[in-house]
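Can't attach files on this board, so I'm pasting raw text. These are the components:
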Amino acid sequence: MRIHEVAERAGVSVATVSRAFNLPDKVAPATRERVERVAQELGYLPNASARTLRTQRSRVLGVVLPTLLNPVFAECLQGVAAAAAVGSYAIVPMTTAYDEAQELRTVAQLMAANVDGLVLVVSNPARSQALQRLRAAARPYVLAYSAHPEHPCVSVDGEGAAAEVVRQLAALGHQRIAMVSGTLSASDRAQQRYRGYLRGMADAGLAVLPVVEVPFVDNAVQSLARYLDAAPRPTALFCSNDLLAVRCIRAARLQGLRVPEDLAVVGFDGIAIGEELTPTLSTVVQPNGDMGRLAVQLLLKSIARARLPDARDSLCLPHSLRWSESSAGPAPTWAHTVFTEPIPTLSHHGGNHEI
Amino acid sequence: MRIHEVAERAGVSVATVSRAFNLPDKVAPATRERVERVAQELGYLPNASARTLRTQRSRVLGVVLPTLLNPVFAECLQGVAAAAAVGSYAIVPMTTAYDEAQELRTVAQLMAANVDGLVLVVSNPARSQALQRLRAAARPYVLAYSAHPEHPCVSVDGEGAAAEVVRQLAALGHQRIAMVSGTLSASDRAQQRYRGYLRGMADAGLAVLPVVEVPFVDNAVQSLARYLDAAPRPTALFCSNDLLAVRCIRAARLQGLRVPEDLAVVGFDGIAIGEELTPTLSTVVQPNGDMGRLAVQLLLKSIARARLPDARDSLCLPHSLRWSESSAGPAPTWAHTVFTEPIPTLSHHGGNHEI
DNA sequence: CTGTTAGCGCCTTCAT
DNA sequence: ATGAAGGCGCTAACAG
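---
Top answer:
Structure tokens for the assembled complex are below.
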């Protein structure tokens, strides 16, 4: 279905049909209605490629995310999609698996696809070649989840939030607080949260524990369980994301530890499912949907003004701490000896609450 | 950066540059190398819109999903993305929130965007206007997660799997097995699984219980808890998806019920996080990634042959039952009276395992 | 092996 | 208020 056929059926020129769609004011009401009716009947929709080629604007935004298997980014993407839809923009999301080479390839591909702008979550803004390339090509982009003085960003104060969590855990009476993180080098955010941990521990006058780095998801629970098996174990774990927190809770249970009595676990991200688990997840709640939404709004605003987004327009969104069931103050000393047996495994059919 | 500039810098015509990219064999090695080098230097990438307009092929696939907030579809999308990447196709995912009107709009938008084909998860293939439209326009598409004799599909036998789950629960000694479902009318799949429940109960000679329909996510846990409060309660719940199962487990705990001793809970989907929860989720494991992957392969194969995918090429993938910690046989009668107090709520700071 | 050229479908200036 | 026509960047005949 092409514009020519609509024009023919409506007894007008293609120019009039085009105007009826794009500049409705410039066409007589009667004509416009007729064109619209015919277009409707024929199911005509303007060919996006031709329009893009002609106008040099695609009304498409590229979205670069590490993965969609972590709900935090899926939630963000929903916000991006919602805000884009409001502005009549389509989105093309792509995932990079936290790999910087792939970030670069992805961005190149998106540029070739003529996206009008990009929202991206990158591993490390400071050294990202993908961002350099975008800047060199003068493509509008906004980062989400990262803060960097030279890039337009929408983020939360991850370091401050982490420090706050640790201080509050200390205030609850915890002294041995360990940080659990994914591969630190893979993500700027993980490093930021770790710095927050260090600062919080210093503020509380506590001794820092070695970071528990869990690089591979496969055996995360296994290695965490092993870690928790060795004395003296921490009384609280601060995890750099909620999925890690879920795994820590499982590892604790496998070791026969109660959460939160024997081990408090706090996550980071505020993924929705965290509130449905048992115990519900204590965590740093980020406004994931809003992060995406506002990144898009910043982007679209700058596009409308035909300028690049300015680093000075960066936004730091408020976060909140959710103190929920997976955390509490440490149990008194005698309690630590109660649960030394691992919980029954599957063959006993899950009697993990009879103990 | 346009093809013309590359041609100029390389001292050849635009046709040669184009050929160097698309038909490398038809250009002299020396020339090709020079063109490639220049293109590299200039960071040239062919304009996708122009190419699409000219060739009438975009090398883009549309992906229509209900939501990305349910990990089952995020997992599927990863499979889709992987298979598309292998075939050098980009993807444009869109979500429909289980709304049929939005499915139609989304498909129309994707068609206007010149996608070469679509993978879609729709509410109800039998009455989907979106599918009618695709068929009318002769666009290649493949459905995932649904089976329908008139459409090319990649799915699992949801009814059979559900019946199997119910029979096995019965074999474990359960007699009061209830089905928990989202809005039945919103999804073909939910209905299919419900039919499986009915069949399984009949096979086991058990009396069917009224389906527990949980239409709105907001108060799902609340209403489930209320349901579980009323006697006589079921000893096993079969949930039409894993997220519901997670909520059922929480509702049970809120009522002071142990899972699985007082209440066995089985889900459906096999989302990855289910294995990390405590208790780990018993569920029907679908190959979510493969579902997406194979749907794309079917699609690309047919595109390569310049034909529409045939309903007779539909695939029914194997599923498996994962019997894990959230299910077990029913506890003996005396056990039902042990836990009658609700677990402490947040204000008591989560002592839900001290009972 | 390489160059010239005609559109793909649309928007937009210019003319009427 | 409407129509005619050029060209966005690219690929694929067709020539040479």
